[in-house]
Design a protein that fits this description.
Elements (H helix, E strand, L loop, with lengths): L1 H22 L8 E2 L5 E2 L1 H17 L4 E4 L11 E9 L1 H5 L6 E8 L2 E9 L4 E6 L3 E6 L2 E5 L12 E3 L4 H5 L3 H10 L2 E3 L3 H9 L5 E4 L4 H4 L2 H7 L3 E3 L12 E4 L4 H8 L2
Parallel strand pairs: 3-4, 10-11, 10-12
Antiparallel strand pairs: 1-2, 4-5, 5-6, 6-7, 7-8, 8-9, 12-14, 13-14
Helix pairs in contact: 1-2
Length: about 260
Amino acid sequence: MQQRLEYARKIAYQAGELTLRHFYETEKLVIEKKTDESPVTIADRETEQFLRQRIAECFPDDAIFGEEFPQTEGTSGFRWFLDPIDGTKSYIHGVPLYSTLIGLENEGRCVGGVIALPALHELVWAGRGFGAWHETQRSKPKRCRVSECSDLAEATFLTSEILTFDKSNRREAYNRLEKSVRLTRTWGDAYGYALIATGRADVMVDPKMSDWDAAPLLVILEEAGGRFTDWKGNATIFGKEGIATNGILHEQVLALLNH
């Protein structure tokens, strides 16, 4: 696992550099729509192809499950989850709050995760039992710790897109939570979860998520001292929704959302 985790960090950084080639010229990108109406570009596909090739070179027996291409089966018990550009809507508008995500699973258990933030030159990663870590261009890796905020009225609440609460008939849940916190911002997608893991925000909620979105988050949040669950409180990456907190506020958030 440690070998794979170190490799994940390396190729996440390299893939992030690949995304930057298009990021600084997003006006030239051809933007297509997938069946769910979400945008996709050549940068998404090129980046995932790069990651798949690198994983296959070093760990040919591992399974790969990514956003843009069909799953590759494996026999080793390890499975890689790939989201080449999480936050494509930010990416195509030249907003640097996008990421490249890698999640690592072993025999059905989440054991590693990487959030690479290429345009911000940050990396947040964790391995089960190895802790959670935050790297920047200017500093060596340092341990991630969630915030110590214990009063929801003083908390900062993040979400990726408010409209998704309307689409999932959960707008009242959003309104209850927004009224209960100090500050609400849409510093969303995986960038928001990185903020929770590093103690820069306290609560993040999304009513709609894909497995590759959530795959790195469970181990990162837990190793940083926080929690990541679905709206029922289950610690899973397959809930199609997500709640991340510093742990202290988690039960309060669950109660408000499910009131």
